[in-house]
Amino acid sequence: MSVETQKETLGFQTEVKQLLHLMIHSLYSNKEIFLRELISNASDAVDKLRFEALSKPELLEGGAELKIRVSFDKDAKTVTLEDNGIGMSREDAITHLGTIAKSGTADFMKNLSGDQKKDSHLIGQFGVGFYSAFIVADKVEVFSRRAGLDASQGVHWSSKGEGGFEIATIDKADRGTRIVLHLKANEDEFADGYRLRNIIKKYSDHIALPIELPKEQAAAEGEEQPAQEWEVVNRASSLWTRPRTEVKDEEYQEFYKHIAHDYENPLSWSHNKVEGKLEYSSLLYVPARAPFDLYQREAPKGLKLYVQRVFVMDQAESFLPLYLRFIKGVVDSNDLSLNVSREILQKDPIIDSMKSALTKRVLDMLEKLAKNEPEQYKGFWKNFGQVMKEGPAEDFANKEKIAGLLRFASTHEEGGEQVVSLAEYLARAKEGQDKIYYLTGETYAQVKNSPHLEVFRKKGIEVLLLTDRIDEWLMSYLSEFDGKSFVDVARGDLDLGNLDSEEEKKEAEEVAKAKEGLVERIKTALGDAVSEVRVSHRLTDSPAILAIGEQDLGMQMRQILEASGQKVPDSKPIFEFNPAHPLIEKLDGEQSEERFGDLSHILFDQAALAAGDSLKDPAAYVRRLNKLLVELSV
């Protein structure tokens, strides 16, 4: 027994106390996950050693055979898990076992659903896996030494999962970590070789590292107990290196849960081996739900990178574009150097080739999901649609492919769900229709009831309704799809092309000519508030609308720029009126210029409200409206 020195008792961080209370008192429906979490942590520790040993081979200390061992003692009611990975120093133990990132804890607590089975699977996702040991143990001891430190710099950490923990310096000959779980009185089922073997096969078969259990041996009568022998109980081979035909769906799913720290099965996956000019294997997954940090573009992301089966990097972000940051998986290259770093990755032409191929593979996987599992794809779109909309701006080469994966609400569908693809839209297009029409706005109710849609309803033309905040920005990068250009129905002078008959075009010209005097009169009344006044071809029921200039920013882009503190270019709307509307007819016949001006401003402000805009001078609008109401009531 090593002599303990520098022994002290320290208190847990408040967040750890909360977690431990939860582990001990709440998450008991799926207790066996403690072993999955501890094995995953041990596997990470070995991966870290492999990576550091690339530049410092002396860290291996002559022991390059890396493994995890799980053992038990029925009499002592203990389960022990040992790895010969990177290990911990005294400071590491205090940091990693006594505290946890507050944001991770807060998100963990926030995501608890009350379903114990699901909640227990959240443990790994938020980096709190070690504490799952207290689900089955009333005391946990950790003996560890960081690779490269002297044998006298080992550490002994122990806790009963209450207010704090004890830590002491010990002698430890071997690098790595040994965790001893002192099982609770009613948890001795885990001090059993058969039970432990089944849990390892169930959750950790995919770990690319031998996981050993003691061989069951009986001593012959009168003989001494034979020396302990060990046997490997998992496959211990990298799952992505095996032929697809040999890998079961369940194995793919468990491997995903391991690398993604997710409790749900993935929606889809793609396992591929590339040979020839480039040689690499990839295993890519589409998650079923969004991670909590999806919209933090600076958050860690990327694939696990292996070089010739040696783990090199946990979140290599150079292999996929940012809009696919939700994709999980591994890539294993034969062409990269083992001492590769993030800086080298960013400059390596091999990476560009791999990135291009992996991006296409993900997009193909999503196309297949959309075609074969439309309901599943609908769920995918709800979770990741806004991120996919970043694609056309970031990935010009795959713009058409990405556009085919986008989904929108439209006037064809009720309820505002984003389920319409551009291919479906074009399949329903009117004969002679050579444009894809869309309208952006703040809410579905606003765009669905917009006066801009009146002529489209009359002619039965479908319009896409875009209400996500980034939609206007998205459409600035999408000029066409399948040879058909996009048209914002609230922008510029609407031209329906072949969808208007020659008679309708001629009639519109005649009306515009006949109303030239009214156009000038309204322009004089509205003055600097508008850039132009004209007769509308869009309206059938409303008296007036505001259109956006062809080169001007729409409301969504203006709000994005304002929110980011950028200067918004000045622009004025175009005022369009419906000459057949009774209010416009009344306006045309108004003799009093003062009253004409008030009515023109009221119509202008109402059109701004209908467009979802705020009024520049609400008090003036109310004053004019009240004046009109008084006159009508006299």
Per DSSP, what share of the residues sits in E-state strands of 2 or more residues? 15-25%
Question: Which parts are unreliable, with pLDDT below 50 for 5 consecutive residues or more?
Answer: 101-105
**What structural class results from the helix and strand content?**
alpha+beta
Rg is: 33 Å
Head-to-tail CA distance between termini: 103 Å
CATH superfamily of the largest domain: Histidine kinase-like ATPase, C-terminal domain
Discrete helix count: 22
Number of strands: 22
What share of the residues lie within helices?
Answer: 25-40%
CATH class of the largest domain: Alpha Beta
User: What would the principal axes of the Cα set say about the shape?
Assistant: elongated
Q: Kindly give the count of domains.
A: 4
CATH topology of the largest domain: Heat Shock Protein 90
Provide the residue-averaged pLDDT.
85
Name the strands of the widest sheet in spatial order: 1-6-5-4-7-3-2-8-9
Oligomeric state as shown: single chain
User: Main sheet?
Assistant: 9 strands, mixed
Just name the CATH architecture of the largest domain. 2-Layer Sandwich
